[in-house]
Specification:
Length: about 325
């Protein structure tokens, strides 16, 4: 028996209360492995129980052993240990884990080989598979896809949330004909804007701009959401003082004051250091007397400032490195 199988037998024997306590101290990977073993155990003979929990053999039925509750047992203990949302995510992966994990195999393959293979596939199929990969590999593959496919795939990665086992099985069947060594694809949580933002972090600026420009035409709301996540209001104040001073000159005091309503003291202090003392005093006074405001109004003001910064970057007035290099003003 494997370690996961032994653990599964022991925890099934101890029951849901003890199992939940144990799971609450384990990471998702170990929980998945043990839960998968629990789901597959079925009837456990007395002899196997004795190997794992020999000290309890005197209270175990020597003829029937016990019969695992399978997925229902796993669901109860996962929900108790992790809460319903995290438990459901793990259960979704466990249910089809026997098919195999394509991501592990693709992670060892050359990005160009994968891109060439997927270049004739439907964008939705590409998105589902690439969403499982690490952001860096996803970005490499997308940058090698035909130009007309890149934005299409990005849209679908952002929009897809979870994929049913049936759809994954269909996708697996289509691609296994040409890549028989890959095996299947297990159910998993995929996609979302966060996945796209992580992927964009590994793209160069020119490639990012081309894809976003295309998204502006194909799906403007999505393009706006991605831009908002790529560069936040707080990120502006990670730039050096010269860059911040240049940006502040383009922003009205009213917009800046509203945008600062929810800012932490560190951000406020950096703003005040990079504007005139008179402007700083006016904004401080306005903030003190400002009553409650809608969060949506604050976010709108921050978005306006972000747009100004993005425009300044496109015009070459500010360079936002933020990806391993220093932020500089040119």
């Amino acid at each position: 028996m494997t370690g996961a199988e032994k653990s599964a037998i022991l925890l099934l024997y101890l029951g849901p209360e003890a199992t939940a306590k144990v799971f609450s101290h384990m990471d998702d990977g170990d929980i998945k492995r043990i839960s998968q073993s629990m789901s597959k155990l079925g009837h456990v003979p007395r002899e196997e129980i004795a190997q794992v929990v020999a000290e309890f053999t005197d209270i175990t039925n020597p003829e029937t052993g016990f019969f695992s509750q399978g997925e229902e047992f796993v669901k109860k203990i996962l929900e108790k240990a992790l809460g319903p949302l995290r438990a459901e995510t793990l259960l979704q992966e466990i249910r089809t884990s026997g098919i195999g994990d394509m991501a592990d195999i693709l992670s060892t393959m050359d990005a160009r080989t994968i891109a060439n293979f997927f270049s004739q596939e439907h964008p939705q199929t590409i998105a589902v598979v690439l969403a499982k990969l690490k952001p860096k590999q996803t970005s490499e593959i997308i940058s090698l896809l035909p130009q007309e496919l890149q934005a299409e795939v990005v849209i679908r990665i952002a929009e897809v949330d979870q994929v049913s086992p049936e759809i994954l099985a269909e996708i697996d069947e289509v691609i296994r004909v040409e890549l028989t060594a890959l095996g299947g694809v297990q159910r998993f949580k995929v996609g979302g804007v966060e996945k796209v933002v992580d992927m964009f972090a590994h793209l160069d600026r020119s490639r990012e701009k081309k894809i976003l420009d295309k998204l502006d035409t194909m799906n403007p709301p999505l393009a706006e959401v991605i831009r908002k996540h790529l560069f936040t209001f707080e990120d502006i104040f990670k730039l050096d003082d010269r860059a911040i001073q240049s940006i502040m000159r383009e922003i009205s005091n009213d917009t800046l004051t509203l945008a600062m309503k929810t800012s932490v003291d560190e951000v406020k202090d950096k703003i005040f250091r990079n504007i005139s003392s008179r402007a700083a005093e006016m904004i401080k006074e306005d903030l003190e007397v400002m009553g409650p405001v809608r969060l949506s109004d604050v976010e709108k003001a921050q978005s306006e400032i972000i747009k100004i910064v993005r425009k300044m970057e496109e015009e070459g007035k500010v360079v936002i490195a933020g990806r391993g290099a220093e932020d500089v003003l040119v």
